[in-house]
Predict the structure.
Amino acid sequence: MTIEFEKTRVLITVMTYPHPSPKYDELVCTAGISESGEWVRLYPIDYRYRPPEQKFRKYQWIDVELGPRGHKNDARKESREPRLDSIKLVGERISTEDGWRERREIIDQMPHHTLNELQNLYDQERASLGIVRPTRIFDLEITETSRDWKPKYQKIYQQMRLFGEPPKPLRKIPFEFRYVFECEDSAKAHRALITDWELGVLYLKEEKRLRSSKAAAESVKKKFFDEICGDSKDTRFFMGTTLPYNTWLVIGTFWPPKQDETTPTLF
């Protein structure tokens, strides 16, 4: 059966920290919003191995040819298989000027849900991407983990050295970070792992600067809790499920300044 690909314009809003993949060497969970206002997950994408002219950034439009779905075992509603060689950047990254106005014009028109509502949508129609505006954010929990990839992932990079392109160094982040928050219909606080690429990059930068893993982790918390979730921010979470268990994760954040109460909103 021949797969039909359709050219689609997508605003990239989510890129998670890279993860080794036995089949694709390395994967970055990438998602965005189509021109028609639909969520799209681009799977698989080996972002760091794309040529420079295909290195899109978050909040940048791209044109890409998409198949009807991603991996055969991925039944999630939004997953699409990208034809990687078709990726073309469209214009510059949308800025945060004027109180994130251009970004808000797009994000504010997307449906917003509670985490419980998203879970119900997954159960009903395998919807696996969405936006949550938490009513309260209590904490960013930090849990120390192994500094090394599991042996099965280390083996991937050993094989790449032998048979393919030299592998690009990929540090494992030795901590897990979880937002603790509630929505308007929460019976108890939710705890959701955050996998945003920017968090990983910030950790590595701060570890190098501070020469301390624990100090770097606290620096991440200062950014992703104190600043992104500060009282002056209208914080939302981009949330998505992960295979094979379809646990909901925070895969990105949207944190424009709060608008004056007299400022009209778009939803």
